Amino acid sequence: MKTHQERMAKKKAVIDERIAKATEERGVLILLKGNGKGKSSSAFGTMARCVGHGKRAAVIQFVKGRTETGEYKLFRNHELIDWHVMGHGFTWETQDKTQDIAAAEKAWAVAEQLLADERYEMLVFDELSYMFKYKYLPLEPVIEALKNRPENQHVMITGRVMPEGLEEIADTISSIRDERHAFRLGVKAQAGIEF
Ligand code: ATP
Ligand code: MG
Asked: Which of 3, 22, 102, 184 is most buried per CB count within 10 Å?
């Protein structure tokens, strides 16, 4: 039987080989999907990492839920972060599809500019996927703009369900499963946890 040390040495060799093969340095497209809690907060956490290294970032919130989230309050005045809240409310509240589409197009116009600006090293498009679910935006121009973005630019997209076309061009896809949520135990949405 192999000793623990031998097993670890073998494992290290495998990992070292993988590290040696991963030599590219470039912007990545990351999709955070699924019904579990943790998509937006993961995107903002990764953005904090980038900004901590002195890189410029921008957020577009395609769906405006709560206005004053903790991360918005923390980041909005940061000199390296632009924060755009674009959506004006959920469909089931506004019941106005024309207005929703106009808001989506306006948000996309901002996104397109950011995707052409290499000064931004990290873009977070929160709930962009929602725009395709409700057909507020066509998918093709979004895919084209993502493909043609600056080489060094990272993009993170959140949303429960991702269209196939986005998954095809993504570098990293994380699916967050809803195993349990405190809401179903009767805990209300709390500041600092939900927003
Ligand atoms: P977070 O912002 O906490 O990272 P999220 O981005 O994964 O969550 P969304 O799908 O954007 O979640 O949902 C928005 C709100 O609903 C958030 O306040 C989130 O905490 C909460 N939430 C997320 N998943 C669930 C769930 N399975 N049941 C109940 N509430 C949820
Ligand atoms: Mg979210």
From this structure: 102
Which protein residue's CA is at the shortest distance from atom 17 of ligand 1?
Answer: 194
3-state secondary structure (DSSP) of residue 173: strand
Among candidates 21, 59, 22, which has minimal Cα distance to 41? 59
Neighbours of 121 (CB within 10 A): 20
User: Distance between CA atoms of 121 and 51, rounded to whole angstroms?
Assistant: 9
Whole-structure pTM value: 0.91
For ligand 1, the distance from its centroid to the CA atom of residue 132, given in whole angstroms, is 19
Distance 61 CA to ligand 2 centre (A): 9
pLDDT by residue (tens digit) across 84-122?
998 765 555 667 788 889 989 999 999 999 999 999 999
Domain spans in the chain, listed from the N-terminal domain onward: 26-185
CA distance 15 to 81: 35
3-state SS class at 146 = helix
Query: Which two three-digit tokens encode residue 190?
Result: 């709390």
d(CA 25, CA 96): 44
Helix (H) or strand (E) holding 8: helix 4-21
Kindly report, residue by residue over 15-49, the tens digit of the pLDDT: 888 888 888 899 999 999 999 999 999 999 999 99
